[in-house]
Design goal:
By secondary structure, this protein is an alpha/beta fold. Helix content is about 55%, strand content about 15%.
Length: about 220
């Protein structure tokens, strides 16, 4: 049985002490090999293109090219390569930027080596990870977004012009009549109508008129 292929790790960080510390962590693991390193973003991209590592430990702040931009470039050019961002910033904004750039994990620099290894294990299995201080805030923001989406009435997303057109539609006006009254083209009226139906999540005129009646835009017969 042939030996298992070792996971090739690349370390990009401009602090030699931290870089050497990470190297020592992976050097002690039998399934990993440190395939390269760099102390700035530009050098990292050059080395990564030739080394083609399986995993990159990327500092978020580096000279010449920051870790977010470098991560975006890596994930675009080498989609099979997984990136873990190391950061001193324990805030959700930097974490979101990292994940949007394609990072699989966001680990704070003051984390214990065991946490970094846990993040590595999750990432290599295809999962995402964020340090607890960040993940809690990410989760809370996600919950807030869901609550806002659930509590917002779709009717409130209509513009004043869309509400005006909805009233005219519910009153029985044709697209031509609405266009003449509002001094706009028929195609513009149809475009507004389609947007209204999309925002209100209805697919037919009957339900559209029901909403108009329920909202008091027009009176029921």
């Amino acid at each position: 049985m042939p030996p298992m292929k070792k996971i090739r790790v690349f370390i990009a960080d401009d602090h030699p002490v931290l870089r050497n510390g990470i190297k020592s962590i992976f050097s002690a693991l039998p399934d990993y090999i440190v395939a390269g390193e760099a102390d700035n973003g530009v050098s990292a991209l050059k080395e990564i293109s030739s080394v083609k590592p399986d995993l990159i430990i990327m500092d978020i702040t580096m000279p010449d090219l920051d870790g977010i931009v470098a991560t975006r470039r890596v994930t675009e050019e080498f989609p099979e390569t997984k990136v873990i961002i190391l950061s001193m910033h324990a805030d959700v904004f930097h974490a979101i930027d990292a994940f949007r750039a394609g990072a699989m994990a966001y680990v704070l620099k003051d984390s214990a080596p065991s946490e970094l290894l846990m993040a590595v294990e999750k990432v290599m299995k295809g999962s995402k990870y964020a340090s607890p201080a960040v993940s809690e805030e990410l989760f809370n923001d996600f919950v807030d977004i869901i609550k806002k989406e659930q509590s917002q009435d779709p009717f409130d997303t209509l513009s004043q012009r869309e509400k005006e057109i909805l009233k005219l539609i519910a009153d029985g006006s044709t697209s031509k009549e609405i266009a003449d009254k509002l001094f706009i083209s028929v195609s513009t009226v149809k475009s507004h109508r389609n947007n209204i139906m999309k925002k209100l999540k209805v697919s037919d005129m009957a339900n559209l008129i029901k909403i108009a009646i329920r909202k008091g835009i027009v009176e029921s017969d």
